[in-house]
Amino acid sequence: MWELLNLLKYSIGCVFWGVLIAVLCMALFVFLIKGWYKDAQFSPATYIVGIILFLLLSVQCILITGSLKIIDTSDYYEVQIQRIVERDYSPTTDITIRQSDDILKEIIYEYPILQYYISGGHFQGYQAYQVAHVMVVELCSFMRWYILRRILWCLGFVLVGAIIVIKTMDRPQTSRRGSQRTTYSRQRHDLRRRRR
Length: 196
What we know:
mainly alpha
């Protein structure tokens, strides 16, 4: 029961911060688009694209905050893995691939949130006293790569979203007569400058 409450507390924190970061990203996105296209108005299609973009960014930001939390608590996980290893193996035991998988399965069973970030690993050739540290170093390395991929997904979503938003915005049309007058006055101005 206590583990379930900890999991919910952990998840709610990641969801809160992930959504907050997504809101800030969307505010910056709207600010930049409106700054670039001052006269344009958002159409209903633009709002739909914005909502979809917000949902996609929220998911990625939640995953990023979850990864950062795991990196931040990696020392705690190292202690827990060390506890499992010390209980089942002597310090000088050479750990096999199967034994390392068993250790990972047990830590994932105790901390289910890790199952979304750890699928497995081969830690053959290490002695039991080394395994906890090696697993945590590998976990943090994987988390950094995972965060980078999530950031790249976010940038991709923003880029595609920006293109679609720009295409779906309503822009005021300048009259044809007004643009012809402007062209004609520019040509006259250029002729005067040449004569001088």
